[in-house]
Amino acid sequence: MCGIVGVTADPDQVPNVMPMLVQGLKRLEYRGYDSAGFAFIECGSYNLKVFKNRGKIDEVVNQYMVSNYCAVAGIAHTRWATHGEPNQVNAHPHLDCDSEIAVVHNGIIKNFAELREWLVEKGHQFRSDTDTEVVAHLLEHFNREENDFFTAFKKTLQMIEGAYALAIIYRGEPSRIYFARNVSPLLIGLGIGFNMLSSDIPSMLAYTRKFIVLNDGEYGYIEPYKVYIERDGELVEWRRRVTTITWSLEDAEKGGYPHYMLKEIMEQPRVLYETYTGLVSSNEVEKAAELLLGANKIFITGAGTSYHASLVFMYYSSLFAKEPVIPFIASEYTTYSRLADENTALIVVSQSGETIDSLQALRAFKNRGAKIIAISNVIGSSIPRESDRTIYTRAGPEIGVAATKTFLTQVLALTFLALRLGVDKGIITKSEYRELIERLKKAGEAASISIEKSSRIIERLVMKLKESRNMYILGRELGVPLAYEGALKVKEVSYIHAEAYPAGESKHGPIALVEPGFPVVFLGTPPLENLKEKLQGNVMEMKARGASTIIIGVKGYEDIRGADIVINTGEWSELLAPYAITPPLQLLAYRLAVILGRDPDKPRNLAKTVTVE
Ligand code: AGP
């Protein structure tokens, strides 16, 4: 997830837009901060200037003394790398061959590889490894052909596939900023004598409170006194869509949500789509699976939520690849690293890529010759840097201490890996593989429908559970790692002691704790033919002791006898169940935290990343 901002102004109204660009971009830093850049039309000369580099916004601004420049129009970008290392050449804006066109982009262009090949054959010289740069060269190509930039822009949009929010300036039309939106957010800010574009409201709120939220498939341009929007070649009437925002600036940085945790729970459909798009358009999964194929022992590790994602991988590797995988909690690595040798593969799951326990596990295995695969959300972080292969999630920066969107994007990346391993081993056929990968496209939809179906019941459930000091969250098979993850969420943000374990274990001790009113949440996961009857037994044994029984399940568990509350998240297969079952657990933890007066974004005693032992 990156942040983009653009401003164009009448010099008589706004003599210099540079302060708006710099301040606006700083308001977007939470969306990404591994590199930043500016492209602007300089006052007087009307030259196109570009300053960009690896580093935070302030570092780049100070390095080039950006604030000393005067601009009549400009675009700026703060990057959360998805394609290409965070460095100077990969920083946005990206330029065409003649440096007449500058592009900033948030999202992922799925078909950038073939477009790049096509453009190189036509003589275009690329400077970066990013997907974005193809847009600048496509614009250059079609502008030469059509000799009309807007037509060239429309032809460019017809060529690119994927998620994008684009802002473009062209030296030949200095007061205009072109834009396009598909999946990645983009809004227009309406001013007097100026207009703005941005990924998010915070970067514009200091200058205007009037906004147009662009819809997928819309594109056009802004000028100081004009907004022009089209969709499929038809003019879009936008005046009735202008909204006035009364948020405070702090509210705006959370997208209007009261906490980052809720914003990040709600972002899951989009970031799952962006992660899916990134995975299908890169060869990260294939390269990682090669290392697994060559190993005779496969281990997987992580801490906290990342360990729970590791357990999901163990389940899917067994299901789709008939491959035994040994999961362990990263801090316990010694017991396992002594089993490692040059025929071992270790998968290290870490959204930050900096967790010290996971880094030490990685080094212990590497010292014994093991091959290392990282699953991470931060390009260029320590764990990917020390790994042989990396599969990146594209969840964007996660500000809330509790992992939410990064968990499900890890599960998605690991499911891709398990399926790839299965087809490489011949356990599933190529057509089965293609069909399963295609079905995974619905991961975001499953999360979205689950959130919609569960939000109201969760609010009711919270009133029931808020006095509880303890609860069980139980699952079977695929439900077990999801139960562990749900219990961790409840513990770390609401401070209620939630414990998860396999539902079949109750009789072996834990049920001794159950007394009237003791809350027990059961996760109803597929396949129903194997699990429903067993779960029915678990519910009855808890009900017999007076427990308060709650089911969060896929369709088919509604008629479980003895359930006080049932949340039906929709009809989902074993492949998509995690994206349906997890969000209600995240919302339960969040709502409990809020009603108990906790700060869900900054829980006591915790840090977002544990970089010290
Ligand atoms: C999860 O909600 C916690 N914030 C914590 O357990 C976290 O998952 C763990 O510290 C691992 O972090 P990582 O994914 O960045 O390695």
Q: What is the structure about, briefly put?
A:
The longest helix is centred in the last third of the chain and has 23 residues, at 443-465.
Task: Write structural notes for this entry.
- This protein is of the alpha/beta class and 613 residues long.
- It folds into three domains: 3-252, Aminohydrolase, N-terminal nucleophile (Ntn) domain (Glutamine Phosphoribosylpyrophosphate, subunit 1, domain 1, 4-Layer Sandwich), CATH 3.60.20; 254-441, Glucose-6-phosphate isomerase like protein, domain 1 (Rossmann fold, 3-Layer(aba) Sandwich); 453-601, Rossmann fold.
- The model has no long low-confidence stretch (mean pLDDT 95).
- The strands form four sheets. An eight-stranded antiparallel β-sheet has the order 3-2-4-1-10-9-11-15, with helices on one face. Strands 5-6-7-8-12-13-14 form a seven-stranded antiparallel β-sheet. A five-stranded parallel β-sheet has the order 17-16-18-19-20, sandwiched between helices.
- It contains 19 helices and 25 strands.
- 2-deoxy-2-amino glucitol-6-phosphate is lined by residues 303-306, 350-352, 355, 358, 401-403, 488, 492, 609-610.
